[in-house]
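ok, trying the design again with the full structure, not the truncated one.
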């Protein structure tokens, strides 16, 4: 999921989101944007504790009906609650304590009037009944919604994907990322010849006389809304137990019946992924809920504890190497990338989609760390440097806050190369590893701002990186190291940077590694061999001013 430039693969991942983002940048925020993207007064006063999503899915009609019971803790007394559900879905009724509640709709936001006095610290429940024909995804997962397809045997093959668009495209909820529900029961009633796979662990399957089954899945850990999913198909499963940092981890894989043998071979990479990322990031964050790979009719998504997979059982990204280095064909992109999201997206989750780089930059970087773990540091550097071909540098990575608007698609590869650069600044690979593990410990099961992530990294490596983050995240330009050599003197400075940019840079001068501290003003040092080489691990451009002048 990178940005657009010359290679097709990066374009496939982001062309819709990137072009949509450019159009959105030209539009003034609307009332609906604010209702969707901000912590409104009708959201702020209550804290999610529990969901029970209880639905019936009718594949032939492409119809969903059912209810969501919402448990919440009262933070401050209020009478109005905002619940989100996108058209053409509709809430039919709301009840609390078996009493009907009034509500009104403003676009995709419902405002529910509560009758019971809301006392601080009380935990209350409301039940929301709803139904409708949810938006059908045309190019999942980028446009989002429900994928209603059939497999090669003519069986229904259905899946959800809704990052960015929002989980309220198919079920009613508090659709803002800042508040994750503490636990969740997902009950899905479907035709009896099919299987539903959702997040967490399967508690029971109930057969009904009307030729349907209900699958009850329970999620023990906090989960973000877009991470909740249903996947329906003619699935078969196979399992293994991984001996991880926190003990036994159940790995369960669900694939279409005719892909079983291919899956058994390709999914050997799953425990390899967990091994590498437990080394770099710390223990898998959801042992209690197990880990699943689930085949779906689109490329894949990071749904918590049920990663969805559609990479056609081949290495690379649909068989291609995003980096052009060759290393991208050593692993299955979807297994590694989406698996990495369990740490960055599901364990550590952005509060506002404007900070989406916290998910995608770190997870794109996780591909590099997977290569590092199995093939070495030089190979990993070649991989991440190779992904620079997909960076456009046309707008900032950080998006606009409070209106559900993400930044540039550069959040993927540019975010990864920013982190690769910071690793070089840290000068200590073990310190860097402990920084990444520390992030997942400090912000375990938390929603965060980018500022919190930036401050933690600066403190951990002992360097003020505020200007570095501002340059790479909030400005679109790449720093240019300008230099010229005159009469045995090297003159150098930073250009194309924000005021105060102060990132040190490693270069080779007279055959030795040398740390320079450029500023916006020229500095100078003597040089003998009249040659300088900048370390490629730093994501910067270089310009020889003397060559240009000549």
């Amino acid at each position: 999921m990178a940005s657009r430039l010359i290679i097709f693969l990066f374009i496939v991942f982001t062309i819709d989101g990137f072009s949509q983002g450019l159009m959105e940048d030209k539009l003034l925020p609307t009332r609906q944007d604010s209702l969707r993207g901000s912590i409104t007064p009708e959201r702020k006063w209550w804290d999610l504790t529990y969901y029970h999503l209880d639905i019936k899915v009718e594949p032939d009609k492409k119809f969903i009906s059912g209810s969501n019971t919402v448990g919440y803790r009262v933070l401050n007394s209020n009478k109005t609650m905002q619940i989100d559900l996108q058209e053409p879905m509709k809430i039919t009724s709301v009840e609390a304590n078996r009493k009907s509640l009034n509500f009104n709709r403003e676009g995709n936001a419902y405002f529910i009037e509560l009758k019971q006095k809301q006392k601080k610290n009380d935990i209350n429940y409301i039940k929301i009944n709803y139904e409708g024909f949810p938006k059908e995804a045309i190019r999942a997962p980028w446009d989002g919604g429900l994928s209603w397809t059939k497999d090669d045997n003519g069986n229904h093959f259905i899946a959800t994907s809704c990052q960015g668009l929002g989980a309220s495209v198919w079920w009613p909820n508090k659709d803002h990322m800042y508040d994750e529900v503490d636990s969740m029961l997902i009950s899905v009633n479907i035709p009896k010849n099919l299987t539903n796979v959702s997040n967490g662990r399967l508690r029971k399957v109930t057969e009904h006389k009307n030729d349907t089954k209900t699958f009850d899945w329970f999620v023990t850990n906090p989960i973000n809304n877009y991470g909740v999913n249903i996947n329906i198909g003619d699935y078969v499963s196979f399992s293994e137990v991984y001996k991880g940092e926190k003990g036994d981890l159940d790995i369960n894989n669900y694939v279409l019946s005719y892909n079983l043998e291919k899956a058994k071979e390709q999914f050997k990479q799953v425990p390899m992924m967990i091994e590498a990322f437990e080394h770099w990031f710390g223990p898998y964050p959801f042992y209690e809920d197990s880990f699943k790979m689930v085949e779906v009719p689109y490329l894949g998504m990071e749904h918590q504890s049920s990663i969805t997979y559609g990479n056609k059982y081949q290495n690379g990204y649909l068989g291609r190497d995003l980096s052009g280095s060759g290393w991208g064909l050593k692993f299955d992109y979807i297994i590694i990338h989406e698996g990495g999201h369990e740490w960055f997206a599901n364990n550590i989750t952005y509060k506002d989609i404007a900070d989406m780089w916290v998910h995608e930059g770190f997870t794109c970087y996780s591909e590099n760390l997977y290569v590092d773990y199995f093939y070495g540091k030089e190979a990993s550097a070649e991989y991440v440097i190779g992904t620079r071909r997909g960076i456009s540098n046309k707008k900032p990575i950080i998006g606009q806050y409070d209106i559900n608007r993400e930044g540039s698609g550069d959040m993927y590869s540019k975010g990864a190369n920013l982190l690769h650069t910071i690793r070089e600044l840290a000068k200590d690979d073990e310190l860097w590893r402990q920084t990444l593990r520390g992030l997942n410990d400090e912000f375990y099961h938390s929603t965060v701002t980018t500022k919190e992530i930036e401050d933690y990294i600066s403190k951990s490596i002992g360097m003020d990186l505020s200007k570095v983050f501002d340059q790479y995240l909030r400005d679109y330009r790449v720093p240019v190291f300008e230099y010229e050599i005159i009469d045995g003197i090297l003159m150098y400075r930073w250009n194309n940077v924000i005021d105060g940019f102060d990132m040190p840079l490693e270069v080779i001068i007279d055959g030795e590694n040398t740390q320079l501290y450029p500023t916006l003003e020229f500095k100078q040092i003597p040089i003998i061999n009249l040659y300088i080489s900048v370390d490629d691990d730093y994501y910067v451009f270089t310009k020889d001013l003397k060559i240009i002048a000549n």
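Keeping the full-length input from now on. The chain is about 25% helix and 30% strand.
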